[in-house]
Amino acid sequence: MGMLKGFIPSLEEVLKNRENRSLFQKKLSDKFPEQTLISLKCNIPGPVKNNETIRQLFEIGKTEIEGSLSTNDYEVIYFKEINLPTGPECFYVVNGLPIDIKQLMIEIEEQKELGRLFDNDVLYNKNGLIESISRKELKYPLRQCLICKQDAKSCGRNRTHQLEELYEKIENIIRSDGRIRL
Asked: Which residues pair with 73 in a beta bridge?
């Protein structure tokens, strides 16, 4: 299975990356306090966070975001991409209201099944603090589990499903989309 192959980062690397991401997002928010920040990652369970399949998925995520921003006349004023053992990530700074940008990001996540594999965070500067916009603020339900339609976070936290079952579902989503070679 394509999803299973790849480098497995240590817990320390994952935690350090999470901290680095937060610091970088804060730095961007301080530098561009009037703009909105989009942070894209892939939403892949399990230990492998970066391989050829995940990078192809990530490229589609970028294409979807850039297409949506362009179609809706939002200007990207800063972009940075990083490719790490903990997974590819990128950051866009956009002229636009956070709530409007979040609506577009939710549409990407909801329109096609593949969108469920993207994690599009929308952040903004509120009195010097970095805030994120939740789906709830736009009256959307929490993200559903890929398998049982319950809240994805609680299924993940409780390890409700076997990794193999999740990988099989993800590979089915990828195959039916047809844009990624497994």
From this structure: none
Q: Which stretches does DSSP call E strand in 30-75?
A: 36-42
Q: What are phi and psi of 135, to 5 degrees?
A: -60, -35
The model's pLDDT over 88-130, given as tens digits with 9 standing for 90+, comes to 999 999 999 999 999 999 999 999 999 999 999 999 999 999 9
Report the percentage of the chain scoring pLDDT > 90.
82
CB-based contacts of 122, cutoff 8 Å, min separation 6: 36, 37, 38, 39, 98, 101, 102, 105, 132, 133
The tokens for 147 are: 């398998």
Gap between the Cα atoms of 168 and 101, Å rounded: 32
CB 119 within 8 A of CB 64: no
- The answer to pTM > 0.90 is yes
> Which candidate, 36, 16, 34, places its Cα nearest to that of 25?
36
Could you tell me how many helices (H) and strands (E) the chain has, helices first? Answer: 5, 5
